[in-house]
Protein backbone atom coordinates (compact mmCIF):
# COMPACT_ATOMS: atom_id res chain seq x y z
CA UNK A 1 0.00 0.00 0.00
CA UNK A 2 2.87 2.39 0.76
CA UNK A 3 4.21 1.89 -2.75
CA UNK A 4 0.89 2.76 -4.40
CA UNK A 5 0.43 5.81 -2.19
CA UNK A 6 3.99 6.93 -2.93
CA UNK A 7 3.35 6.64 -6.67
CA UNK A 8 0.07 8.58 -6.42
CA UNK A 9 1.82 11.33 -4.46
CA UNK A 10 4.58 11.40 -7.09
CA UNK A 11 1.95 11.87 -9.81
CA UNK A 12 0.47 14.82 -7.88
CA UNK A 13 3.95 16.24 -7.28
CA UNK A 14 4.84 16.00 -10.94
CA UNK A 15 1.60 17.66 -12.00
CA UNK A 16 2.55 20.69 -9.89
CA UNK A 17 6.17 20.51 -11.07
CA UNK A 18 5.14 20.52 -14.72
CA UNK A 19 2.79 23.44 -14.14
CA UNK A 20 5.49 25.37 -12.25
CA UNK A 21 8.15 24.71 -14.87
CA UNK A 22 6.12 25.00 -18.07
CA UNK A 23 2.82 26.66 -17.17
CA UNK A 24 4.19 30.14 -17.85
CA UNK A 25 4.82 29.04 -21.45
CA UNK A 26 1.32 27.65 -21.91
CA UNK A 27 -0.43 30.58 -20.26
CA UNK A 28 1.91 33.22 -21.68
CA UNK A 29 -0.84 35.55 -22.87
CA UNK A 30 -2.52 35.57 -19.44
CA UNK A 31 0.53 36.21 -17.25
CA UNK A 32 3.09 37.95 -19.47
CA UNK A 33 1.96 41.36 -18.25
CA UNK A 34 3.29 40.57 -14.76
CA UNK A 35 6.96 40.43 -15.78
CA UNK A 36 9.60 37.80 -15.28
CA UNK A 37 10.16 38.37 -11.56
CA UNK A 38 6.47 37.86 -10.77
CA UNK A 39 6.33 34.78 -12.97
CA UNK A 40 9.35 33.31 -11.15
CA UNK A 41 7.67 33.95 -7.79
CA UNK A 42 4.44 32.40 -9.07
CA UNK A 43 6.37 29.34 -10.25
CA UNK A 44 8.07 29.06 -6.84
CA UNK A 45 4.67 29.23 -5.18
CA UNK A 46 3.38 26.40 -7.36
CA UNK A 47 6.60 24.43 -6.75
CA UNK A 48 5.92 24.59 -3.01
CA UNK A 49 2.95 22.28 -3.62
CA UNK A 50 5.22 20.01 -5.65
CA UNK A 51 7.44 19.57 -2.58
CA UNK A 52 4.43 19.07 -0.31
CA UNK A 53 3.72 15.90 -2.31
CA UNK A 54 7.30 14.94 -3.30
CA UNK A 55 8.82 14.74 0.17
CA UNK A 56 6.07 12.53 1.67
CA UNK A 57 6.11 10.35 -1.46
CA UNK A 58 9.83 9.74 -1.12
CA UNK A 59 9.56 9.04 2.61
CA UNK A 60 6.64 6.63 2.16
CA UNK A 61 8.27 4.87 -0.77
CA UNK A 62 11.82 4.67 0.57
CA UNK A 63 12.99 1.35 2.00
CA UNK A 64 14.86 3.38 4.63
CA UNK A 65 11.46 4.42 6.05
CA UNK A 66 9.77 1.04 5.62
CA UNK A 67 8.64 1.56 2.03
CA UNK A 68 9.07 -0.89 -0.82
CA UNK A 69 11.55 1.01 -3.02
CA UNK A 70 15.29 1.61 -2.99
CA UNK A 71 16.46 5.15 -3.77
CA UNK A 72 17.42 3.99 -7.28
CA UNK A 73 13.95 2.60 -7.84
CA UNK A 74 12.27 5.75 -6.50
CA UNK A 75 14.32 7.95 -8.82
CA UNK A 76 13.55 5.93 -11.93
CA UNK A 77 9.84 5.72 -11.01
CA UNK A 78 9.78 9.50 -10.63
CA UNK A 79 11.46 10.05 -13.99
CA UNK A 80 8.95 7.85 -15.78
CA UNK A 81 6.05 9.58 -14.01
CA UNK A 82 7.58 12.95 -14.94
CA UNK A 83 7.64 12.02 -18.61
CA UNK A 84 4.10 10.65 -18.57
CA UNK A 85 2.74 13.77 -16.85
CA UNK A 86 4.80 16.03 -19.12
CA UNK A 87 3.57 14.18 -22.22
CA UNK A 88 -0.07 14.53 -21.19
CA UNK A 89 0.47 18.20 -20.34
CA UNK A 90 2.20 18.89 -23.65
CA UNK A 91 -0.32 17.04 -25.81
CA UNK A 92 -3.28 18.72 -24.06
CA UNK A 93 -1.97 22.27 -23.64
CA UNK A 94 0.89 22.86 -26.08
CA UNK A 95 -0.82 22.81 -29.44
CA UNK A 96 2.43 23.80 -31.20
CA UNK A 97 4.20 20.62 -30.04
CA UNK A 98 3.61 17.18 -31.52
CA UNK A 99 4.34 13.76 -30.10
CA UNK A 100 6.56 11.91 -32.57
CA UNK A 101 7.89 8.38 -32.92
CA UNK A 102 11.31 9.30 -31.56
CA UNK A 103 9.70 10.60 -28.36
CA UNK A 104 7.92 7.28 -27.96
CA UNK A 105 11.16 5.38 -28.67
CA UNK A 106 12.86 7.38 -25.91
CA UNK A 107 10.02 6.55 -23.52
CA UNK A 108 10.44 2.85 -24.33
CA UNK A 109 14.10 3.20 -23.38
CA UNK A 110 13.05 4.70 -20.04
CA UNK A 111 10.62 1.86 -19.41
CA UNK A 112 13.53 -0.50 -20.09
CA UNK A 113 15.51 1.51 -17.52
CA UNK A 114 12.76 0.80 -14.98
CA UNK A 115 12.97 -2.90 -15.84
CA UNK A 116 16.74 -2.99 -15.34
CA UNK A 117 16.68 -0.93 -12.14
CA UNK A 118 14.09 -3.29 -10.60
CA UNK A 119 15.85 -6.44 -11.79
CA UNK A 120 17.31 -8.25 -8.77
Can you give a write-up of this model?
Helix content is 80%, strand content 0%. It is built from five helices and no strands.
Average residue pLDDT: 89
Q: Count every beta strand, where a strand is a DSSP E run of 2 or more residues.
A: 0
C-alpha-based Rg, rounded: 16 Å
Distance N to C terminus: 21 Å
Major sheet summary line: none
Q: Tell me what portion of residues adopts beta-strand conformation.
A: under 5%
State the helicity in percent bands: over 70%
| Helix-strand string | HHHHH
In quaternary terms, these chains amount to: single chain
User: What general outline do the C-alpha atoms trace?
Assistant: flat
Low-confidence segments: none
Per DSSP, the total helix count is: 5
- Structure classification: mainly alpha
Amino acid sequence: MKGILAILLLVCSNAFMTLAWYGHIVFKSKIEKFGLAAIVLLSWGIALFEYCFQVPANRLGSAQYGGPFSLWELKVIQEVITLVVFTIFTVVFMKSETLRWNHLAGFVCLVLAVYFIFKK
